[in-house]
Amino acid sequence: MSRKFTPKVVTANDLVEGDVVYLTEAGAWTRRHAAAELIEDEARAADRLALAEAQTGTVVGAYLADARPGPHGPEPVHFREAFRSRGPSNYFHGKQAEAANV
Amino acid sequence: MYKYSDFDEAFVRSRVAQFRAQVARRLDGSLTEDEFKPLRLMNGLYLQLHAYMLRVAIPYGTLSSRQMDRLADIADRWDRGYGHFTTRQNIQYNWPKLPDVPDMLEALADVQMHAIQTSGNTIRNVTADHFAGAAADEIADPRPVAELIRQWSTDHPEFQFLPRKFKIAITGSPNDRAVTRAHDIGLRMVERDGVPGFEVVVGGGLGRTPMIGQVIRDFLPREDLLPYLEAIVSVYNLLGRRDNKYKARIKITVHEHGIEAIREKVEARFAELRGGFDGVDQTWLAEIENAFAAPAFRDADPAPYLDARNADPVFRAWSDTNVAAHRHPGYGIVSISLKAHGATPGDASSAQMRVMADLARRYGHDELRVSHEQNIILPHVALADIPAVHAELRQAGLATANIGLVSDIIACPGMDYCALATARSIPVAQQIAERFAELKTEHEIGPLKIKISGCINACGHHHVGHIGILGLDRAGVENYQITLGGDGTEAAAIGERAGPGFAYDQIVPAIERLIGAYLEHRESPEETFLETYRRLGMAPFKAALYPEDAKKETARAA
Ligand code: HEM
Ligand code: SF4
Fold first, then answer.
1. Where are the domains of chain A?
2. What is the 3-class SS of B279-343, one letter each residue?
3. Are B454 and B412 in contact (CB under 8 A)?
4. Going by C-beta distance under 8 Å and a sequence separation of 6 or more, which residues neighbour residue B47?
5. By C-alpha distance, which of B507, B484, B479 is closest to B494?
6. Is B26's CB within 8 Å of A15's CB?
7. CB 3.0–4.6 Å: which of A77, A95, B141, B286 could bond B133 by disulfide?
8. Is B27 in contact with B100 (CB distance < 8 Å)?
9. Residue B426's domain spans which residues?
10. Residue B431, Cβ neighbours under 10 Å: how many?
C-alpha cells in the first residue's frame, strides 16, 4: 500500500554538544528547524538520510521527522519535534534561549 | 562514612582514564557511534532530547558535605548551574558537552564518586532507605550491607552482560521507605530468635509489566547474603530471556517459571556457591561497618525546638511535615523538600546544594541523603538546632513544608529531557503543586503520594503512587492516564487504571476532582486518601473523574 508521502526533515544530535540539528539543502547542519530542507519526495528523503547517517563524526542518531511548510520555513508536526526544536518547558534553556535563534 | 580503599581509588581513576581515551577516539573519528555508545553508557552518559545527560551514582543515597559541594561545582563549571536528583538516588546533569565529560568524572573521582553501572545491563546503584542509620524504627543500618553489595557487584565479571538491568534495594526498617518490593531484588532486614538476617524478595519491577516482588526466602542469615545474591543473579543470568527486551527483566523470569521453580534453582546454586565464600566477605563487612559507625550524638536540650514550635506557626507547620523521629533522643531527621510549589521536582541549584552542604557541615554531622522521593535529607540534626536550620533553609527557598503531601510529587524528566518519553511529566507536576498551593488545601488533604511518569517505563514510579499519572502519546497528542491505589511501602500494591486518559489541559482539573471526592467521602480527617480508596474502591473516584458518564448512569437507572 502506498500512502501519500508526508514531508520530512532530517534531524540528529550534534556529536560534541548533543544539541538538536537539522540538515539543510546545502548539506550542512543547522540548529534551526526553519532552516532545514523540507523534503517532499520519498526517494530524496532516503538519499538525504543516508548522507546524514554517513556523517558519524559530526552527528548522532539521524532520522526523518515529519514536518510541514510554514511562513518562515519548515515547522515540526509532532509535539516531540516541537519540543526538540525549542528546548525544555521547565527552564528557558536550550534553543529557545539561544540568541542565534531569535 | 565509607572511604575508598586504595583499590577503589585506583579502579575509579583507571576507569576515568579509559573513558578519556575513548572520548578522544570518538571525537577524532576512530570510534563510530555504534562502537562508542556501549562505552559511554557504561560510564553513565546518555544522549537525551536536547543534550547529553550524565547520571552519577549516589550509593545508598549518602553524601558528605564535601561531595555535595563538588556536585554544585560540577553543575556550575560544566552544566547549567543545577542538578536533578532522581528516584534511583542518582543525580543527573542535563547539559554536559561530550569533551567535558572526562573532566566531570575526574572531578567526581576526587570526592570518591563515579557514574559506573548507572546504565547498562548490570547491577545498578544499590538503593537504600534514606533514613538509614537515623530512623527510630530501624533494626540496623542497611548501608554497610549496601556497600558490601556494591563492592561485590561493581565490575563483577559474571554480571556485566545480564539479560537486562538489575536493581537491588535494601531497608533496615519494617516500614519500607525504599520501595523494596518493586526491585529486582528487595532486601528487608529481619531478626529471628535474636539472629539478624534478611527477608529476600525477588522479581519486583515497574515498567511496562509492573509486578510486586515475591518472597523467595523468608529468612536468610546475614552471613549467607552474598552467596545467595550471587545464586539469584546467576540463575537469572542463564534463565532470563535475551530474545525480547521487554521480557528480559527477572520479574518476567519469575513470572514465567514460577517462584517455586526459581527458588529450587537458586537454592541448588546457593549450595554450590556457599563453600566458595570462605568468610572473607564477612571480614569486609566488619570493616565497612566501622566506616558507618554512628556519629557522636550529643545530648542537647530540645527546649529551643519546642519553643519555636509554640512561637512560630510557620515553623510548626514545616516541622510537622518535614521533621521525622530520630533514634537518638534529642535529635530529628530533617527532610529538605526539593518540591517548592511550581518548581521542578528533584532539581536543586548549585547555590542550594551549597546551602545544604553547609548546613550538614555545621549542624548535621556532615551527612546528607538523597531520597527516592527526590528530596534531600539531613539525617542527624539536634532538635535544638532545627530552628536555625529552618531559618537558613527559608532564605534559600528550601523550606517548603510539604513532605508526604499532594505537592511532594515524584516526576520523571519526561519529554522535557528524555528521548524515550511519550509525554511531559514535569509541567504536570508543577501545575498540580501550584493549583493546590492556590487552594491552600494540602495540609487538610494530608498524606498523599502522586507520582508521574512520561512513558510506560515508569521511572516516576506511577504504579505505586496513591495517584499515578502516566503520560502517553495518543494520536500525536499528550494524554494522561490515571491509576489509583498504588502503594510503595511494605504493603506494596500496583495501582488500578481509573479509565480513559485526560488531555494535557484536563489532567489538573481531573486530579482536583479526584481529591475533592476523597475529601467528601473520607470518614474523618484521619482517614488518608489511600485508606478511603481501600475502603470504598474505585466507584466514587470514577464518578468524580468522569462526571458525564456518572450522569448517564443515573439517567439510565431512573
Ligand atoms: C534518560 C533518561 C532515562 C532513560 C533512558 C530511562 C530508561 C528506562 C527504561 C527503558 C526503563 C524500563 C526498564 C524495564 O522495564 O526493563 C526504566 C525504568 C525505570 N527507571 Fe529510568 N530512564 C531514565 C531516567 C530515569 C530517571 C530520571 C529515574 C529516576 C527519577 C529513573 C528511574 C527508573 C525507575 C525507578 C524505573 C522503574 C523500575 C524498574 O526498573 O522496573 N529513570 N528507565
Ligand atoms: S518514564 Fe519514560 S519518559 Fe520518564 S524518564 Fe523514564 S523513560 Fe523517560
1. 8-100
2. CHHHHHHHHHHHHCCCCCCCCCCCHHHHHHHHHCHHHHHHHHHHEEEECCCCEEEEEECCCCCCC
3. yes
4. A13, A18, A60, A61, B53, B419
5. B484
6. yes
7. B141
8. no
9. 410-557
10. 16
Give the end of a domain, one of B395, B423, B455.
B395
Q: Which residues approach ligand 1 with their CB closer than 6 A?
A: B 46, 48, 53, 86-88, 92, 164, 167, 205-208, 249, 412-413, 418, 420, 457-459, 461
* Cα separation, B159 vs B168, whole angstroms: 14
Determine the Cα–Cα distance for residues B91 and B127; give it in Å rounded to an integer: 13
| Contact residues, A window 11-70, toward B, CB-based 8 Å cutoff | 13, 15-20, 56-57, 60-61
Q: DSSP class of residue B211?
A: B
Measure the CA–CA gap between B249 and B272, rounded to whole angstroms.
Answer: 24
Q: Strands B496-497, B477-484: parallel, antiparallel or unpaired by DSSP? A: antiparallel
User: Residue B471 pairs with which residues in a beta bridge?
Assistant: B480
Specify the pLDDT at position A1. Answer: 45
State how many domains chain B has.
4
The enclosing domain of B57 has a CATH number of: 3.90.480.20
Contact B416 A84 (CB under 8 A): no
The answer to whether the CB of B380 falls within 8 A of the CB of B326 is yes
Q: What does the pLDDT read at residue B126? A: 87
Nearest residue in A to B423, CA atom: A80
Could you tell me how far CA B203 lies from the centroid of its own chain?
18
In this structure, is residue B296 part of a structural domain?
no
> Does residue B114 fall inside a structural domain?
no
Share of chain B above pLDDT 70, in %: 100
Q: How far apart are CA B116 and CA B135, in angstroms?
A: 29
Residue nearest to atom 2 of ligand 2 (CA): B455
Q: CA-to-CA distance for B13 and B19, rounded, in angstroms?
A: 10
**What count of other Cβ atoms lies within 10 Å of the Cβ of residue B119?**
18
**Confidence check: pLDDT of B107 > 80:** yes
Question: pLDDT at position A2, please?
Answer: 55
Tens of pLDDT, residue by residue over B112-159, are 998 887 787 888 888 899 999 999 999 999 999 999 998 898 888 888
Identify which of A20, A56, A90 has the shortest CB distance to residue B33.
A56
pLDDT band at B6 (very low <50, low <70, confident <90, very high): confident
Cα of A60 to nearest chain B Cα, Å: 7
Domain boundary among the residues B395, B422, B450 is at B395
Q: Which of A19, A57, A90 sits opposite B51 (nearest CB)?
A: A19
Tell me the CA end-to-end span of chain A in Å, nearest whole number.
Answer: 42
Paired with B393 in beta bridges are: none
pTM of the model: 0.93
> In this structure, which ligand is nearest to the CA of B50?
1
Instruction: Give the pairing type, strands B168-171 and B127-128.
Output: parallel
**B205, B282: one domain:** yes
Cα distances (angstroms) measured from residue B472 to each of B347, B397, B500: 23, 33, 12
Helix (H, G, I), strand (E, B) or coil at B532: helix
Same domain? For B251 and B325 the reply is no
Q: Please check whether residue B305 is in contact with residue B383, taking contact to mean a CB–CB distance below 8 angstroms.
A: yes
Give CA–CA dist B455/B464, Å, rounded: 15
